[in-house]
Write a structure and sequence with these properties.
The structure holds two protein chains of two kinds.
Chain A lengths: L1 H16 L1 H25 L5 E2 L2 E2 H17 L3 H13 L3 H4 L5 H30 L10 H27 L1 H4 L3 H14 L11 H7 L9 H7 L7 H26 L9
Antiparallel strand pairs in A: 1-2
Chain B lengths: L1 H20 L1 H26 L10 H26 L2 H7 L2 H5 L5 H7 L7 H18 L5 H26 L9 H16 L7 H10 L2 H4 L1 H7 L5 H28 L6
The chains are: A mainly alpha, B mainly alpha.
């Protein structure tokens, strides 16, 4: 565990080199919120509620979900892995006395830890600037559930991207898959629109999938909605994380022998 | 002019033979664009399933709007997108030298060298969505409105290209244009969801005159449904001309400023 902690620390420190970029990244989250404000102020004309959400709840949702979406940087894992597997530089991870899966998860954790703090401050600032009364969660239990769900969600996305990265060993060229995944993941995680806007039967189906619990449900929990789904969400997401940890281990062990260290 | 056409046709031939070598690369843009289009369509249906109309535009008109945006986007994808997006990298790595030292217009080559037929099916989907929107709104199309629509689509495609080029030319001045690209993406995402007629005040000024993504699909859609005034038509032509002038001037200025790999 100590080794992984050191990896996380090293990547967190590395983020400090690019602090203006990380800072700009966080600040840029405001443009998403601004545009959401504009979109929904037009759509809410003459309406009190849309899909059970009032205007302020909708903007609160966008502020929280923009923060969570900006935290999720795991797409870099698959891009980095595919690049290194193709050009033969992945060997440096294979010779390390740590599991590669653990290495990439720790790397992701280190990167997130750095931007989480700045992002949280920025999120509070956006609530203040947009004059949105932050709807505090009524009880501590929900706050803990939502926070734990965010951590599990980030872990799941890291695992998923690691899995896609390993697939380079099988398919060689996966950039098309990655772009398609990026297009869909923003939508199915609820970063584009709140999933509450979708028809009920689609939401029912999505409850079995992990993406529902990555951005959408934690954001809703943070604004005091969907509290009855919190515990089920934690169970579902935990199961998906375990499935992917095992799947990644098996897939990696199965395909790593195809890697010859000279690039594809 | 004749030489330029001959040059473009040679570039396209070379490009086609190149992408046919990598079959997945040929179909890749099709799958990527289709997934992006589907996501936009789902988002649109999810939002407008809860809203009856926006400033008088019903479901049919909004479908024409979104289909038109997608049409212009896919024309851009087929012709110049992959070439223009490579400009910042070419500037940073000094690869632009290879373009500037050839006896052809470097911008012409960059624009047409990465033509990609992978987005053609998306073009067909877009036309289908527009047709569905026309049927949904129950309007009768006149020949004049279709011609007016096609002219506006042409002008707005040029405007779209100008915006793409203009933002990427900032790479001549700064090291990274990543954050500008994020602004471009967010503005496009927004303007793909809301027709320009819904903007007001400062937003109208921004999305009609400064980042004119708000007019790109709105003016052609207005032309098709017969709601475009002569003033709107002149505005569309003027904004396309002004931005073409600004984009080309900025490109020329940038090339003069360019100091090879060290710029």
């Amino acid at each position: 565990m100590k080794k992984y902690l050191e990896i996380a620390k090293a990547y967190m420190k590395a983020q400090l080199i690019w602090r203006p970029d990380a800072f700009a990244d966080v600040i840029m989250a405001v443009e998403k919120i601004l545009f959401a404000w504009l979109l929904w102020s037009i759509l809410f004309e003459g309406k009190e509620q849309i899909a059970g959400l009032g205007f302020q709840a909708m903007i609160s949702y966008y502020i929280v979900s923009s923060y969570l979406f900006q935290l999720e940087k795991s797409a870099e894992i698959s891009q980095q892995m595919t690049g290194m597997l193709r050009n033969g530089t992945f060997s440096k991870y294979m010779v390390l006395p740590v599991q590669t899966q653990g290495y990439f998860v720790a790397m992701e954790a280190g990167k997130i830890a750095f931007s989480a703090g700045i992002g949280l401050l920025a999120t509070v600032l956006w609530f203040y600037l947009f004059r949105i009364p932050f709807m505090l969660i009524a009880n501590m239990k929900m706050l803990l559930c939502a926070s734990f769900m965010v951590i599990l969600g980030l872990l799941f996305m890291a695992e998923l991207n690691y899995f896609l990265g390993i697939l380079t060993l099988k398919f060689q060229e996966i950039s098309t898959f990655l772009m398609i995944k990026d297009n869909f993941s923003a939508f199915v995680t609820g970063a584009v629109i709140p999933l509450a806007l979708l028809p009920e039967w689609i939401i029912e189906g999505m409850r079995f999938l992990p993406f529902y619990y990555v951005t959408y449900l934690p954001s809703m929990l943070f604004i005091g909605k969907c509290e009855d789904e919190a515990i089920t969400g934690l169970y579902v997401l935990s199961v998906w994380c375990i499935v992917f940890v095992v799947l990644n281990q098996i897939t990696y062990e199965h395909y790593r022998i195809k890697y010859d260290g000279a690039g594809i | 002019m004749k030489n330029n056409f001959k040059f473009i046709s040679e570039l396209i031939k070379l490009r086609l033979s190149h992408i046919m070598t990598f079959r997945l690369g040929f179909f890749g843009p099709f799958f990527i664009n289709t997934s992006y289009f589907l996501v936009q369509l789902f988002a649109f249906e999810a939002i407008y399933g809860h809203v009856d109309n926006i400033r008088g535009w019903g479901h049919g008109e909004i479908l024409i709007f979104i289909g038109t945006f997608s049409l212009i986007d896919s024309i851009n994808m087929v012709i110049c997108f992959f070439g223009v997006i490579s400009i910042p990298e070419k500037i940073q790595t000094g690869e632009l030298d290879l373009y500037l030292t050839k006896p052809v217009n470097p911008l012409l080559r960059i624009t047409f060298e990465k033509v990609n037929p992978g987005a053609i099916p998306l073009l067909i989907f877009s036309v289908y969505i527009i047709g569905y929107g026309v049927r949904e709104s129950g309007m009768n199309l006149s020949c004049a409105s279709v011609i007016e629509y096609l002219v506006m689509v042409l002008l707005m495609t040029i405007l779209f290209y100008d915006m793409e080029l203009l933002l990427r030319c900032f790479a001549f001045l700064v090291f990274s244009v990543n954050n500008l690209m994020k602004i471009e993406n967010t503005a496009m995402d927004l303007c793909m969801k809301i027709p320009g007629i819904a903007f007001y005040g400062i937003y109208k000024l921004i999305f009609y005159c400064i980042l004119p993504y708000g007019v790109i699909a709105t003016l052609p859609a207005q032309a098709l449904i017969g709601a475009l005034s002569a003033k709107g038509l002149i505005f569309g032509a003027a904004i396309a001309c002004i931005f073409t002038f600004i984009a080309l001037s900025f490109w020329t200025y940038g090339v003069h400023r360019y100091e090879s790999a060290s710029s």
